[in-house]
Write a structure and sequence with these properties.
Blueprint (H helix, E strand, L loop, with lengths): L8 E6 L2 E6 L11 H23 L4 H17 L7 H4 L11 H20 L7 H11 L38 H13 L7 H15 L6 H15 L11 H6 L1 H14 L2 H37 L6 H13 L2 E2 L1 H8 L3 H13 L4 E2 L9 E2 L1 H4 L5
Helix pairs in contact: 1-11, 2-4, 2-12, 4-5, 4-8, 6-7, 7-8, 7-11, 10-11, 13-14
Length: 377
């Protein structure tokens, strides 16, 4: 299928509304638009350089966890949750009761991503894996009654309050199994010579158009991007997430997807997607560079702590995963005594590595400002 001649699908009459039946994607794809090749080259270059950090940065997993937390918070924010990144790093007892539903959704997203990446070592990227990931995403939260881990068996819609005023109505539930089977075949069809980033763009569009689950489609669809890149070896670790780009350009993101459905303009969507990969990878590279500089700086700061240096290094490793902490959590993470935990926190405060942000003596909370800010600026 040539992009320039692509027909996105047809509208099907369903009682009082029309649903959209997308064209299957498991086919060869070509294009004439030269700017796509230019954007693809830029995106591949930036992605390769970002991936290099995963191979050269010591203890990379310490820092990947914060990337996942940031993705979980941002992708959930696109669906209406109001959990901020500092709250995502807190334990449940530190969250106000009225905010805990949102907090649980973000924590489920973190678990879903971590589990899916681990599952890729044993399972192919497949409908089975997506269903498992979806079940984790909806575990014990507001969508827990919306068939977690199963494709929908009823009609859903996007935007509006009902089918009568919806912005977009995905295909009938009866079409979902065949459409998702086609998508899965496309993921693994090595006879189709399409660059992986182009393939990822097509897959994301198709998944969001099918909307195969009753709830959680946006989050699973965005998770699908890094999972696909990892499965194809373009990423060694889950270090690229487009949710920040999509959230910052939310109107353009929604419009680009709708232009495919309404005007067959897949070229505009692919260009938008490749720009997002390039911009996000460039920002990711900058974050890793700043992390390395900060790491060198704080290693120098703790070098004067004498016999507490080894324990201080272990404490830093904890903070790189969770830069917001209290004395009890640090004590548990290090397996040390309460006096030792308090002593390290005092040292880190004096070195301005940690800052006290809670005023209650019984539950003082400390933040590694310089590190957390790398993920919020």
């Amino acid at each position: 299928m040539k992009f320039e001649k692509f027909k996105s699908g047809t509208w099907q009459k369903q009682f009082q509304f029309k649903s959209f039946s997308p064209t299957p994607i498991n086919q060869q794809w070509t294009w004439e638009e030269p700017i796509i090749n230019t954007l693809l080259e830029k995106a591949n270059k930036s992605l390769g350089e970002l991936n290099a950090f995963s191979l050269i940065v010591p203890d990379i997993d310490l820092f990947i966890q914060m990337h996942i937390v940031k993705e979980a918070q941002t992708s959930s924010k696109m669906e209406g949750t109001k959990t901020e990144i500092d709250e995502a790093l807190m334990s449940e007892d530190q969250i106000a009761p009225e905010k805990r539903d949102d907090w649980h959704e973000v924590q489920n997203y973190i678990d879903a991503m971590n589990n899916a990446v681990a599952d890729l070592k044993e399972l192919p990227l497949s409908n089975r894996l997506l269903k498992q990931t979806h079940a984790t995403l909806l575990r014990g939260v507001r969508g827990e009654h919306k068939l977690p881990g199963k494709f929908r068996t009823s009609q859903n819609w996007i935007g509006g309050s009902s089918l009568t005023d919806a912005v977009f109505i995905p295909p009938s539930q009866n079409e979902v199994p065949d459409l998702m089977s086609d998508l899965e075949k496309f993921l693994h069809n090595d006879e189709i010579t399409v660059p992986d980033l182009i393939k990822a763009a097509i897959v994301h569009y198709q998944f969001e158009t099918i909307h195969p689950f009753c709830d959680g489609n946006g989050r699973i669809g965005r998770l699908l991007i890094p999972l696909y890149l990892i499965s194809k070896g373009l990423l060694y670790k889950p270090s690229l997430y487009l949710s920040v780009f999509f959230e910052r350009n939310k109107s353009s993101y929604i419009d680009a997807l709708m232009r495919v459905r309404e005007a067959n303009d897949i070229i505009h969507w692919v260009k938008f997607f490749l720009n997002g990969v390039h911009e996000t990878a460039e920002k990711g590279k900058g974050t890793f560079q700043k992390i390395l500089l900060l790491r060198t700086e704080v290693e120098g700061q703790i070098s004067g702590l004498g016999k507490r240096v080894p324990m201080a290094r272990e404490a830093l490793a904890v903070l790189y995963r969770k830069p917001l902490i209290n004395a009890a959590r640090l004590q548990d993470s290090l397996g040390c005594s309460k006096p030792t935990s308090n002593a390290i926190i005092k040292d880190f405060q004096e070195l301005k590595i940690l800052r006290d942000i809670a005023g209650t003596p019984r539950n003082r909370l400390f933040v590694f400002d310089r590190y957390l800010n790398l993920f919020t600026s």
